[in-house]
Amino acid sequence: MSRALEAARATARRLEAAAPLNAVLHWSAAELEAEARRADAQAPAGALYGVPIAVKDNIVTTEAPTTCASRILEGFVSPFEATATRRLRAAGALIAAKTNLDEFAMGSSTEHSAFGRVHHPLDPALVPGGSSGGSAALVAAGVVPAALGSETGGSVRQPAAFCGVVGVKPGYGRVSRAGLVAFGSSLDCISAFGRTVADAAAVLAAMSGHDPDDATTIPEPPLAPPVARADLRGLVIGLPREYLPGDLDAGVRAGVDRAVEAMRGLGATIREVSLPHARYAVPTYYVIAPAEAASNLARYDGARYGVRRLGPAGDLASLYRTTRGEGFGLEVRRRILVGTYVLSAGYYDAYYRKAQQVRALIADDFRRVFAAGTDLLFTPTTPTTAFRAGANTADPVAMYLADVFVCAASLAGIPAMSLPIGRAEGLPVGGQLIAPERGESLMLAAAGALEAALDGTAEVR
Amino acid sequence: MTWETVIGLEVHVQPTTRSKMFCGCANSFGDPPNTNVCPVCLGLPGALPVPNAEAVRLGVVGALALGCTVHPTSIFARKNYFYPDLPKGYQVSQYDRPLATGGAVRCESPERGPIEVSITRLHLEEDAGKSLHDRYPRRTAVDLNRCGTPLCEIVSGPDLRSPAEARAYLVALRQLLVYAGVSDCSMEKGTLRVDANLSVRRPGQSGLGTKTEVKNLNSFAFVEKALEAEYHRQVGLLESGGRVEQVTLLFNAGTGELRVARVKEESHDYRYFPDPDLPPLVLAPAWVEAERAGLPELPTARRARYADRFGLPGYDVGVLTAEPETGAYFEAVVAAGADPKAAANWVMGEALGSLRETGGFPVPAPRLAELIGLVTGGAVSHQAGRKVYAELAAHPDHPPGVVAERLGLLQVGDESALAGWVEAVLAAHPGEVARFRAGEAKLLGFFTGQVMKASQGKADPKKVQPLLRSRLGP
Predict the structure, then answer these.
(1) Does B84 touch chain A (CB under 8 A)?
(2) 8 A C-beta contact, residue B113 and residue B148
(3) Which of A124, A221, A290, B312 suits a disulfide with A119, CB 3.0-4.6 Å?
(4) pTM of the model
């Protein structure tokens, strides 16, 4: 039996066992074996030969349905394959499963899935974070060594922190969006989860690089895997004071303190810096992302594919109203309404235009800090560890604030990642590294050194 | 009481590209429904647009031909509205940062003489699909072949003062774009479409009246007719004490009537915003300048050249420059050695006749030049030359001289042969000879005609007359 086939069968057994997590929307043992046979037929074998990779179900693949965890796309099978998964397959990887998510990637807990919430692998009463909660949970549960998620405003880093795995968001345009179902197009990034920094980095490298099918990709060749470094000597790590508020969760605080000490021990210079516009990141994000989403989701109208509900009147308006009213969940409808509002005549200047101006200021904050000699920034990934399911579903703003530390890098389009830096009361704490534009390699190398120096599963206090 | 008409036109022109604006599907007309489609133009989840460089180039060429300023940076924006023939739920267009602004088109107003019509803007966009409301009873079918084909929208200022002026502007605009090679501008194929805005006001009034928009105009003649009808509708409203409402009207070419399609309250809020899938369109100024330098000769320059260099009258210049192919053919005939005025006459007569019948110029320019040479040199009469032309149209590889000879159409200028016919005619008409000699000079024409008849048209009339004079002389 080939190594790929062995991996496929072992993955199938683990997927079966992991069913209670509800992390997967689609997989089959037969498809996994077909993937292995395809990988075996490829020459050369490729850097990811036989590596099973789970894929968030908002990335289109031709063998399986792509639903975005929405009723409106139930049963939809794409006639074309995403550039990212095509490249992973070309590198020998096995697409193992399509994972559960907040509907259309809108959410921070993977509770907003039309197909039920995802459970945290350490405690089923907790959320895994979101929106890429299914991918994060599968990696944390050891079902797959790596998975694809998508980020619009922290949807990989936040669940990575909650689940205790590595989550890497590349800079905007580093990985092609072709085949990623659009949410907020100016923010969306296909991103990688890994059990280790090296695993996530290898997946990122394999799918990165210019793509003629996406006019917003950076015209550069694929990333080289990062050169491992033993220490952080010569690096200046900035700690933005806005990301370490007085009321920060004590466990998260302790994790950050321990990681900072570890970086100091590795020879890094630690410096306090300021990103004065950081506090506007969440409100800015919640204008821009819904605006783009309202437009991007207009295509789901029941006229051509996906679910069609004709409605009582049987006319066009009724088709639209019923299909979209019944096909989209509450959170998606909320964001479509918000997005439509902020782009409307008379409100555009006050909301959308203003948000774009603030977005530019947020990006300038980062540029200024990096230009002044800071190589990387370090922050907590989330203000708390994983919360209980249902804790924030009644209060959307409380839910949105779970992303308070991750939104800014998304708005600035710069690379950022989360890695496990310890546990507080048994729950994972994530530390975030943020890099300047095109700084993925430095960020991953530094993360690798920190990972080696820290026991990411040790209790921090 | 008189009213002044104010008209501005929005013209959509489809640049002649091989593929669509943002995907690789064929940009072609008349294929079976929903065959030229792909994930991008179908708006499938995850599909992304990539701009077509040739469509951008043709937009720039069009803008330069209209004298517009081409902006180094323009922005694609989404125009959001729901309709079944718009698969993404938005149309990619340009909004507050168009490709080009501030040009002008010169044309001849039937009422005011030469006028200059300002071009407010030219922007690029993609077309929507087609909704077919008459294909199935009580149902609408959607054909997405046209979806995503490139368009240049050209917006004029409110500078036109009559429906006839609007038509003259359209003719001039179309001519410019066809000359520049942007588009074939065929209303029949839908590669040129017109929406017209009209309002009326009192002469001398500086503000504009409430305007209405007329759509569904399928020919320049219908544009003029529809605008006439709309002028009368608005004046009728105002003079009976009513008000003009801001509406969109559809013109029914069959009945000549206008029907209100949409009132202002129903108008969309398009929620334009920059398309995040498409980076700003940045054009290097040097590249734009190279396109400007590479512009073909435009109608105004060609008209001036035909008048100056060939000394042609205004009418001829107008006919020969109406379509660039006609002028190119004419010039090829002149280049092959034909006299310019004679060439103009032949091209405007026989050759344009062929073009109307066959859609092309069947006689190669050098052959027509040879034929013209035969006529001007007297070897064949003008009448016979037309017969030779008809034969050449069927056999373009035959030399005209050979054809003329084969058809027995070569004129006879040889004195001895002519003398025979002349003697025979004079002998047959002694009474007329006597009358001529008595002073009835106009009978010379009669004798000439008789000689031509006797020679079956082959005698060269210019040589027959001197011969007749000398034989009839005292």
Answers:
(1) yes
(2) no
(3) A124
(4) 0.92
